[in-house]
Structure formats: structure tokens, C-alpha cells
TrEMBL record:
One Pfam family, short name: LptF_LptG
Bilayer topology annotation: Multi-pass membrane protein
Record's subcellular location: Cell membrane
GO BP annotations listed: lipopolysaccharide transport
Key words of the record: Cell membrane, Membrane, Transmembrane, Transmembrane helix
Transmembrane segments: 12-33, 53-78, 99-122, 369-389, 396-415, 427-446
Name assigned to this protein: LptF/LptG family permease
Keyword Coiled coil on entry: no
GO CC field: ATP-binding cassette (ABC) transporter complex
Amino acid sequence: MKKLDKLIIRTFLGPFVATFFVTLFVLVMQFLWKYVDDLVGKGLDTMVIVQLIAYTSATLVTLALPLAVLLSSIMTFGNLGESFELVALKSAGISLLRFIRPLLVVCSIIGVLAFLFANYVIPVANLQAKSLLYDITYSKPAFNIKAGVFYRDIPGYTIKVAQKDKDNQTIHQVMIFDHSTGGGGGDKVILAEKGQMVLTANKRFLYFILENGWRYEEKGNNGYSVPGDMIRFSFKKYSKAFDLSSFAFNRLNTDLFASNQQMLNIRQLDLAIDSLQKSQNIFARTVNAYVTVRFPFFKWKDSAWAATAPPLQVKDFEEIVPEKSRRNVLDRAEQSVRETLSSLEAPTKEYSDKHSVILMHKVEWQRKFTLAAACVVMFLIGAPLGSIIRKGGLGTPLVFAVIFFVIFNIFFMIGEKMARSGVMFTWSGMWLSNIVLVPIAGFLIYKAMNDSNLFNKEFYFRIYQKIKKFLQKFRRNKFKKQPTI
């Protein structure tokens, strides 16, 4: 490797690592902002939050890499242009394509690593992240009784306290409605002047230690009491235990999510697509057999048929049906069509659902290659763009990087949506963003090789001055040609 190649690679790797982690951090923050309502107030452990962020970060790596490559390539060549190193290289007879070549190799390696990461790591990360997010979303909020509000999150109980002290344990004017079926009776009501809330060390049980109250219990017909009897007990001190096991954070079996297309690699997607297509063909054969029986179309020509069909003498079907049989014939035809459509409705819906699942699997198959190839495409845009604008730092390169990444993301989402809905082929829909950006990359490379003034303010200012002078000259000539009165 020559010193020039080492210099360019060393200049590129620093901004690339920095921009990659910054981009990944922004994408993770966007994810957390989206699901902040599902995360707050659940009493989750720190380790659960760390696991969710780690798995989510892994799933966003392939999306962060193209933006990091684009921004770092603009910064690298912008810094080289701003310090006139590009001018020195070109004056030494080294073309733009020559000192782009080592970084093109590096970005190609990054693209291959992105594909391997998307194929082997992201399916596992998706499985863990999606299952963990599902468990968090459907878990109950942390136990929190508020003063003056009926609390119903404990199964079988409704609790209300009129006042809570600052220690968050002492409570006043307590009402507990017991709707559980245990004890062989009906509803139970407990009223107390004050009490204490005590949580066990393992947070499995909550004890209400109540003082000065009454307990009301309605007894049903259990063999020794009259139905509808109301029993009242007074107490000086009474302890009531509540089971908080339903508030514990429990993990579901990840195998429940393993069949989703986002959790599969290339080989598994191929097997799944093949199985789904075989299953889909069964419906086609079933519908074909059912329709053929009801509406037979003869394959062989009958010997009594004429060589050419005689001209049709009637203009309306009703003319060849006797009037007395017309209503009966139309009703039977309508009923036959209705029965056929009704019997085909369920297979049609199932066929459509199977086809949608196949399209989603094909989209996921193409995604693993699309985002990997986007790393190379983004470099082919960023390198000539940086050599044209000749601005280093983070300001101007960030603006251009965001513009092109937004263009890439818009066409990527549009193409994916069209591919999922069957409007476009899956390969053309998923590669739409790269197809749009490759001509732009070729145009920028051509401009950079010819030292274009595409982003030079003085170039556009000179054009403006020429247009201004031309308009002024045109206006003077126009006034000279006007006849005098």
C-alpha cells in the first residue's frame, strides 16, 4: 500500500467512526422517543433498558452505516480540498479516481460487513428487541396509588385513599372493595381511618396495616347462613395482603416471534418463500378445479360444430328466453353466480394474505443487499461532493449529507411500500433509492474530475452579473428603437 493510500484511509477512518456513533445515537434516540410512553412508569430494571437499547442499536447499524459513510466522505474530501491538498495531488498528475480508489475498496469492505451483519446478527437482534419491546408494552405500570383516585390495577380489588402523607406510606380514609370470589361469599368492603402501606423486600406482596375501621361482608348461601346476610366486623388493627405478582416483568418465549420475516437470514427466507409459494399454489389448483366443475369449457371441438359461427340474430338475451320462464332463468343464474362468489370469497382472501406474506419475505430478502450496496453508493456521492464544495468541518458537509440521506430515505420508503403492496417488483422497489442516486453519483464524479464550479458562489455571482448586463443592454437598445414623437 502506498503512502498516499494510507494518508487518505487514515483521514477517512477518524470521521467515519465518529459520525457512525453519532448517527447511531440519533437513530436510537428517535426509537426511544417513539416508545417513551410505553417505557415510562413501568418500574423497569436498568438491565432491561440496557438490553433494549443494545438490541435496538444492533438493528439500526445497517441504516446508520450509509449516512456515516456519506458524511465522513464529504468531510474527508472537503478537508483535503480546503487545505489545498487536492490541488497538490492533481498538480502531481494524480486523478480524482486514483485517490478515490483506496476508499472505494474500504467502503466496499464496509458494505460486505454490513451484509454479513444484516444476515447473521440483525435477525437475532430483531428477535430479542421485538420480543422484549412486546413484553414491555403489555406489562402493567408500576404500582402507584394516588390520593382521591380509585385504583383498579390489582386484580379483584378497587382501592381508594383520601390522603397520602409525604412518606408515601401513611394513608388516611381508606376504602377497599374486594371483588374476588374466594372466601365463599360475595363482595367485601373495608373502611379504615388510617393505615400503613408496607412492601415486602422481594416486591411480591403489599400489606395494608389498617387502624380503626369496619369490615363489611355479604354472605351467600353456603349451607349455614341465610342468603343475602350482611356481616359487619369492627377492628382496631387489621392487616390485608395484596399479591403483586401481576406487576412483575415477565418474558415470553422468543420462539413465538421466530417465524417473522425480520428474524430470518437469507437461507431461512429462501426456505420460507419456497414453502409459502407451494402453499399458495394449492389455492390456485383448488379454485381452478371448483370453477371448472361449475363452468365447464370444452377442450376438444365437437364434430357437429360448424366451421364458422352463424351470425347472432338477437340483440338481447331476454329475446331468446320465453317470457313465462324469463324470471325463473334469471333468478337461477343470479343464485348460481352468488353461490360461486360466496364459496370463492374465503379462498380469495387467504390467497391474498399468503401473497402479502410472500411479498414481505421477498422485501426483507432484498433489504439485506440494498442497505449494504447503499454504503458504496453514498461514498460515490460523498467523495466527489466533498472535493467540489471544498469545505471541511461539520457544518456544510452535514447539510449536504442530510439532504442526500433524506432523498435516499424517501425513495427507500416509497419503493418498499410499493414492493409490499405489489405495485412494483420487490427487487425494483427495494433498489429504487440506489437506482435514483447512482446517476447523481455519476454526475458529481464527472463534475469533480473537471474541476466544476458547481457549488462556487463566485461562479453563480459572475453568471448573475452577465445576465444583469445583458438585460440592461437589451433595455437600452429597446428604448433607442422607439420612435420619437
